[in-house]
Amino acid sequence: MPIENLDHYFIYSADLEKSQEFYSQILGLQDGPRPSFDFEGHWFYLDGKPVVHVGTTGFPGGIPAASTGEEVDNLPKVGTGRIDHIAFKATNIAEFLARFEKRSLPYHKNSIPEFNLTQLFVKDPDGATIELNFFATDA
């Protein structure tokens, strides 16, 4: 059975309010319904699908450390760890640039002419790098 698509990714958040603002107000994802877990968090939706899960250190992890005999270490890390970035295809680059400028968010812009692609890289409040891809027809 082949993998069909990417379902979601989970980010530990040191400040849920900042994460909520970043993913909904800056990236434009919809903050939507989430199961009543025993830890705080948000699920952010894209086209009706929850693609980004954000939670606190109350989440024991996908494989709880206790079940593997590992030491518990769910504290938010600075940066993206072993994952360098998470990418989304996007449209309306001017709108994103305006959001970044309005909030004085540092970003990096990269052009790949042979693919008619412009990329924006920005950090979320916990240091995860988010890549936004704008193809010439979507810019």
How would you explain this protein's 3D organization?
The chain has 139 residues and is of the alpha/beta class. The chain folds into 2 domains: 65 residues, 2,3-Dihydroxybiphenyl 1,2-Dioxygenase, domain 1 (Roll), CATH 3.10.180; 62 residues, 2,3-Dihydroxybiphenyl 1,2-Dioxygenase, domain 1, CATH 3.10.180.10. It has 3 helices and 8 strands; from the N terminus they run βαβββαβαβββ. It has a 4-stranded mixed beta sheet, with helices on one face. Strands 5-8-7-6 form a 4-stranded mixed beta sheet, with no helix packed on it. A hairpin with an 8-residue loop joins β2 and β3. The longest helix is centred in the first third of the chain and has 11 residues. The chain is globular. The termini are far apart. The mean pLDDT is 86.
CATH topology of the largest domain, what is it called? 2,3-Dihydroxybiphenyl 1,2-Dioxygenase, domain 1
Strand order of the largest sheet: 1-4-3-2
What value does the Rg take, in angstroms? Answer: 16 Å
What is the overall number of helices? 3
Largest sheet: number of strands, sense, barrel closure? 4 strands, mixed
Q: Assign the CATH class of the largest domain.
A: Alpha Beta
Order of helices and strands: EHEEEHEHEEE
Kindly estimate the percentage of residues that lie in beta strands according to DSSP: 25-35%
Name the descriptors.
about 140 residues, alpha/beta, 2,3-Dihydroxybiphenyl 1,2-Dioxygenase, domain 1, 2 domains, four-stranded mixed β-sheet, 3 helices, about 20% helix
